[in-house]
Amino acid sequence: MMKTALITGGAQRIGKSIAIALGQDGYHVYLHYYQSKEEAEATAALIQANGGACSLMQADLQNIDALAPMMQHIAEEVEALDVLINNASIFIESPLSDTSIDVWDRIMDVNLRAPWLCAKLARPLLASGGGCIINILDSGIEKVWPNFAAYQISKVGMAQLTKLLAKEFAPDIRVNGIAPGLILPSSAEEPEQWEKLVNRLPLKKQGNPADVVDAVLFFINQAYVTGEILFIDGGYQLV
Prior knowledge:
Blueprint: E1 3-7, H1 13-24, E2 27-33, H2 37-49, E3 53-58, H3 67-77, E4 83-86, H4 101-128, E5 132-136, H5 149-169, E6 174-180, H6 191-200, H7 209-221, E7 229-232
Parallel strand pairs: 1-2, 1-4, 2-3, 4-5, 5-6, 6-7
Helix pairs in contact: 1-2, 1-7, 3-4, 4-5
């Protein structure tokens, strides 16, 4: 039977790389997207061109009524889900004093509430096959980022959620987190600023999506690890 994986926000950037790698590894990839339809279709086409299987699933993760139907659709097609990767995220620059309630809610709903609900809804499918959950965090969870306050708080919460889920879902489901650092610059990042950030790192170089993919595959294949958070950040924690 073909292995199955659901990845949220899998249309582009790191999510895209993870989705393609899972497709190459023999998974039927359920690729969630929200507004990036063209990117999602292009990613699915790449997976299928390499002989993999991919099903697209559109949903607004801020809408709690959209999550159960997404999981129900998977349940109707497969007996078990092997991997859930909570990757979708909203990254908005906003100091606490300037953060509106709307921005706060959007960030918390997508970055924290949705991973919790997806894990909760996927639990029966994952438990039936001894599956695992991987939460994509941020290496900044142990720093203080005043200009990205709500985003950082959501990721800190997600780190604690990872540990709580790992304890509650054991022994049937393993739950781990990956905290990437400077892997890909955002569209708003100026090249000079990005280079300055990279040069502060002990390793003096940016990461690659393949580095995160390797961590994902490690957690999938390592059956004796749960409740761990792996930093893929070039030594950012040492700065």
